[in-house]
Amino acid sequence: MLSYPRHELYPEMVLTLEILFLGISLLFLISIIANKFGERLGVPALLIFLIVGMLAGSEGPGGIPFDDPPIAQMIGVIALAYILFSGGLDTRWEEIQPVFWPAIALSTVGVVLTAAVLGIFAVLVLGLSPLTGFLLGAVVSSTDAAAVFSVLRMARARLKGNLRPFLEFESGSNDPMAIFLTTGIIALILTPGESVLALIPMFVQQMVVGGLLGYGMGRFVVWLINRLKLESEGLYPVLSLAMVLLTYGLTATVGGNGFIAVYIAGLVMGNSIIVYKKSLIRFHDGIAWLMQIVMFLALGLLVFPSELVPVIVPGLLTAIFLILVARPVAVLLTLIPWKMPMNEKALVSWVGLRGAVPVILATYPLVAGVPDADMIFNIVFFIVLVSALVHGTSIPSVARWLGLAAPLQEKRKLSREFDVDPDTPSELIELTIPPDAPAVGKQVVDLGLPKGALIILMQKGDERFVPGGSTVIEARDTLLLLTTDDLVETVRARFLSGEEPGDAPRAS
């Protein structure tokens, strides 16, 4: 825990609230600036944040004493919930639909195979007991989607075909399985004589309840946001923040997996028509970054670098085996039913960057009092460092070497970065036309827009222009409209539902 000692040089100065705020803000600022320099080197953000946390810890220049695994675990769980929700919110269903089943297979069966293969290695090479070895395998069995794709964006490269949505969905959905395996094996260790078969009904319950409640809460939040009609736009992000915690807490309380629930809830919301959708996505993207910084700083503070020295050899051996054997074997065996080119399988095998979840899961044995928990935590932390260095700097090069990389095309956005005169009762709105909207196939002149509503910009694919009366509205067109406050609902209804504003849901 943080302590409140008097400073050696200034005995009169204690750790006041002001000094605490100053320290936290400096850590955040240093992390963001360091990440900017790390981008040029292709170093993942998680590695930067972990190193900053370690330097700020008790054995670093910062000298902050922190040794409280339960608090670190709590911070990690909250942060991961918001990160997964943001990932689901920004995922397009039409992109993941073609790769849904192979990605689900890799995020479930693939995780189990990775844990099993690495567990066998830990038993035979590291000399761990079978359950402890499989616990180590379970802890490091999931990947980090955010880190993988931040590396790809920094390298100005993108993946061809459906590889990007495949890896994104697999990485976002494999965390619940790793968490289940970890908690299940810990339960087996702490209750000798318990059968492995007892985990099967627990698994079914967690996944089914988590999936159903996640979908139900997602639909409920969509309905609530569209019907509530809050006075201030700023309250909608606050509402979404509360609903994430409610979804996780309610699901976990009734025996479901809270992480899969928040991910599915985000996926449902991101693929639905809701008010201020664009601003909500941007808001939660910022929250996800904030949570990453907080989480990795806390986990970095928890690490004692001196304790990593004894595990360098076993940690390095385990990391090499995970990268070169466990992950590739799991990928190749899992994807047998699907016809995927070998170069794509090779890239999927290599894109196995370990990050947030393994370090968080490594705190579970510490909190539960599992034997050898300290060793597991230090080995896992070392594996994450090695994986971040190896994968983080090599993924773009490997993608190009395998012929699966293409130049990154900068995503052009409709600009909304200008102010409307506050004395003018007008509002700037952005609409993305869904495929089932009545406006699809109609000319602008046939929409019957009321006087006072004007389409000032339109985007079709990568083309942006000012539309004319004969311009045909097509699915997924993005429109930027300027209208008076009293016509906002009418305009939204005219494009999205074809009904009068009293019955029409609002959309972004």
Report on the structure:
This protein is an alpha+beta fold. It folds into two domains: 38-407, Na+/H+ antiporter like fold; 426-496, Alpha-Beta Plaits, CATH 3.30.70. The protein has 19 helices and six strands. It has helices at residues 17-41, 45-56, 69-89, 93-96, 100-124, 130-139, 145-154, 163-173, 175-190, 199-228, 235-253, 258-270, 277-302, 305-308, 312-334, 342-350, 356-368, 373-401, 488-496; strands at 157-159, 405-407, 426-432, 453-460, 463-465, 478-484. The strands form two sheets. The protein has a four-stranded antiparallel beta sheet with strand order 3-6-4-5, covered by helices on one side. It has a two-stranded antiparallel sheet with strand order 1-2. It is globular. The relative contact order is 0.13. The model is unreliable at 1-13, 408-424 and 499-508 (pLDDT under 50).
